[in-house]
Amino acid sequence: MQCFHCGANIPAAAPMEIVDSNQATLSFCCHGCHGAYLLITGAGLGDFYRRRTASPAGDQWVPTPPGSPYADTGSHFSGDYLSRFVHCKGEENAIDIIVDGIRCASCVWLLEKMIARLAGVRDVRVNYATGRAHVVYEPALASASAIFSTIATIGYTPRPYTPTAAAEAASQEQRDLLFRLGTAFFLTMQLMAYSFALYAGYLQGMGDRTKFYLQIFSLLVTTPVIFYCGRPFLAGAWRAVRNRASNMELLIAIGALSSYVYSVYALAAGGEVYFETAAMIVTLILAGRVLENGAKRSACSGVERLLGLCPLSAHRIREEVVETVDPAELRPGDLVLVAPGDRFPVDGTIREGITDVDESAATGEPLPVVRAPGDSVVAGSCNLTAAVRVLCEKGAGDSFVSRVARLVEEAQSRRAPIQGVADRVSAVFVPAVIALSAATFAWKLLAGAGSGQSLMTALSVLVIACPCALGLATPTAIVAGTGAAARRGVIFKGGDILERLAKADIAVFDKTGTLTCGMPQLLKVVPAPGATIPMLLSMAASVETGSRHPIGKALVEEAACRGIEYQLGRDLQSHAGGGVTGAVAGQEVVVGRLEFLRDRGTRGMPDPFPEEDAATAVGIAQAGRYCGCFLLKDRLRDEAADVVSYFREAGVRTLLLSGDHDRAAQAAADATGIGEALGGLSPAAKAERIASLKNGGAAVLMVGDGINDAPALSAADIGCAVAGGTDIAIETSDLALVKPDLERLALAHRIARRTMTVVRQNLVWAFLYNAIGIPLAMTGRLTPIFAAAAMAVSSLCVVGNSLRLTRVPRPLFVPNGRRPGGESAVPKGQAPSMRSPQSPIHHPPLSGEVPPGHAEARHG
Amino acid sequence: MDESLVTLMVLSLFLGCGCWLIFLWAVHKGEFNDIERPKHRMLDDDEDLK
After folding, report:
1. SS3 for A675?
2. CB of A717 closer than 8 Å to CB of A690
3. What is the CA radius of gyration of chain B?
4. Do B5 and A179 touch (CB under 8 A)?
5. What is d(CA A104, CA A728) in angstroms, rounded to the nearest whole number?
6. How many of the other CB atoms lie within 10 Å of CB of A675?
7. pLDDT of residue A838
């Protein structure tokens, strides 16, 4: 049974049930979800639930359950603190809020409606793309903290937004590009009307005066296109000239300028003009750039979100008085109180109290760890069970999260902008064309033609060599390739990523959350003599109900799946780092680590403990007597082995880098077929290892999740974040998978290689055109009007070839259900994960590949 | 004939300029900041349209 609000599995015992207006029974997993449901329907927004299931992306919507530690952060922002982020505009106040957890359009709808219902709110705009809300309200009636707690109550996490300089600059650049593109489109449309009239005139004859007017108007509209809209290219070309280098921009600038200059000259001397060539190059290339820029912009917001992990207020203890301060004011030596559910504001050591800490944000490891006095804690990780006092060791600016944010920022800026295939081509092509053009001029002059005639011929060589097809070869293929990938749930953060991915020599995988699901699953139940498996599960579920610990959740889920009845335990107590105790049917039940059971004096403990490599053992005891144990293990993803073998067959080496211990890393590597595994690596060590691979000349693809992977993802040539990991990791990587499904990674790799093949075909085609056209132009046999026609045909061929990429590539593997059992490379006790015996190159037919509900389905 | 041609061309330029100014205004106002949401917005068949 699933919760109507959050979709989580509901334990069989005592679910919250209500009957709605349509006489249907709705179940909820907890009071929090029930409350959220009442709130949403009470506001007349019950439509949300219908919308959510009807919406194609609905299957991705997972709200933060209201009971989770993240859900009530809204109430932790005091009004004083929030007032810093409010802008006053006359009688209105406005605030920008980052809202975490927006997954689909229904979320945006719900948020806008819920906030708009608050008294005094004048306007709400939730930006789906950036996940930010802009709220305008009357300070007399509404308050920022009321808005924040409304957002938090319905299960999203609000944070005040402060724009960083980089993000401001990026959005400024996007706006600037849009201005240029819009202007270029408008003027080019006008220009084409004149050009068509001129074409007709050329073929049918036209009065000289009429032709002159049309040409003058063409000049009028082309000039701003070249010198205003094309300014980014002209500036880039000028930089290239000054550095004595050659790049794509230089090629574009030469193409546009030469046809412009030629046309101006022809206008004065009386001839045919080719303004449309110049304007078209600029407009089309500008359009490609706008699309690419939009994808890159999101990378900036990754760092913003990372910094947003740090809590924005801290509770400092001074002479036993708690005061709320800005974390930036904390100095080493200050004592800080951190309540359960709060995030640690600074790096420090625990002074008082024992608690479970969820460090998944910082380390990517999903299991909470125990922190006792003397242990260190990392800023940004979440305190789960008990209030603790922490001695601040570093200022907030030096905290782990801030350092990672800086690392990522550095890596992003240090990364040299990759010069595409066409750039390297243009390095040879541009000087060659200029040389040919100059040679033509000299040759004509020596042959006795007038200087005007010689110049015309020389310029026509430049016009014909115009890089229209060459310029379009790469951008169109890349736009088509990234578009095709995006429809299949793979987001490339720019065209250069495709090229780099196609060239990757080594694929590096993280273990937890990447090759594995990131959630422990019950592997085996080992009952002691006299106990049965259902009995053990029933007892465990009784005491673990409501547990936030992933192991507890896994046990409760298992009991619910098997339909085992259980009653709710009483006197439930959670012991940080040990386990849970409670009373079931009047007898004490203890579930926890085997050491914990032994310390409590449990009788009949087995010796040695049942063991399974790399599995976590959890024991259970009733009335002081050992009853059995559960073995849990983080399960490998079903498709992990297939993807590894795909990469091997594609000629890409594989390597596993893990923060987990060596033995676990090796086990995962053996199970998936990864050649080499290294364990026990810190985030910095992973990044170093990748840097040294790169120094060795390899192109490195890093696949990971979690913030601890963020430096490694940035250090690699291509960083790929698997969804289900943190937003931050996804946004700091080059390539993101929208669903935690590694098959998409293999798909991305194939799309990248296909795209590069198409780019190469396009380039060959463009060269062929030039190889024929340039000699004809040099001898003066090809008049530019025919050259322009040939160029249009050549451009169309290039665009058409690129569009082939948007077709659905055939699937890589047989879908899970029909996967034939091949030779098993999986150790005993491992979840079934067979290597597909057939090579990924022989593809099964397409039909039936897309499972319903997958992201692709909505795009048909 | 040439006069009418020039007049028409100037007229079309003016008309085009009008559209262009509307575009500039839209970019300035941030209408293109979120191009995902509006396509879903029309499906919100609410009674209280603002």
Report:
1. coil
2. no
3. 19
4. no
5. 18
6. 12
7. 36
pLDDT at A349 over 80: yes
Over range A213-220, report the average pLDDT: 91
DSSP B43: T
Sign of CA dihedral A508, A513, A517, A519: positive
Binding-site residues on chain A for chain B (CB distance < 8 A): 105, 108-109, 125-130, 171, 175, 178-179, 182-183, 186, 189-190, 193-194, 207, 209-210, 213, 217, 221
The average pLDDT across A801-809 equals 75
Q: How far is CA A553 from the centre of its chain?
A: 28
| Unique residue bearing structure tokens 């036993």 | A320
Per-residue pLDDT, averaged over A573-595, amounts to 78
Q: Of the ranges A244-258, A392-406, A450-464, A759-773, which is most confident?
A: A759-773
Residue written as token pair 């004096």: A601
Between CA A627 and CA A607, with CA A550 as vertex, the angle to 5 degrees is 30
Q: Across the A/B interface, how many CB contacts are shorter than 8 Å?
A: 57
pLDDT at A423: 64
Confidence label for A708 from pLDDT (cuts 50, 70 and 90): low
| Residue type (1 letter), A423 | D
Inter-chain residue contact B12 with A194, CB threshold 8 Å: no
Nearest-Å Rg of the Cα atoms of chain A is 32
Structure tokens at A402: 């801030």
Over chain A, what is the mean pLDDT?
A: 73
pTM for this prediction? 0.55
CA distance A57 to chain B (A): 12
Residue B12 near chain A (CB below 8 Å): yes
CB contacts of B37 in chain A (<8 Å) are 105, 108, 126-129
Classify strands A718-722 and A735-737 as parallel, antiparallel or unpaired: parallel
Whether B22 contacts chain A with CB within 8 A? no
**Cβ <8 Å between A210 and B34:** no
For residue A126, which residues of chain B lie inside 8 Å, CB to CB? 37
- Tokens 């025919």 — which residue? A786
Asked if B1 and A210 come within 8 Å (Cβ–Cβ), the reply is yes
Nearest residue, CB atoms, B5 vs list A105, A130, A213 = A213
Burial class (CB in 10 A: 0-12, 13-18, 19+), A579: buried
For chain A, say whether B9 makes contact (Cβ under 8 Å).
yes
The kind and range of the H/E element at A510 are none
- What phi, psi does A16 have (nearest 5°)? -75, 125
pLDDT of residue A775 exceeding 80 = yes
- Name which of A300, A373, A363 is nearest A511 in CA terms: A363
pLDDT at site A221: 93
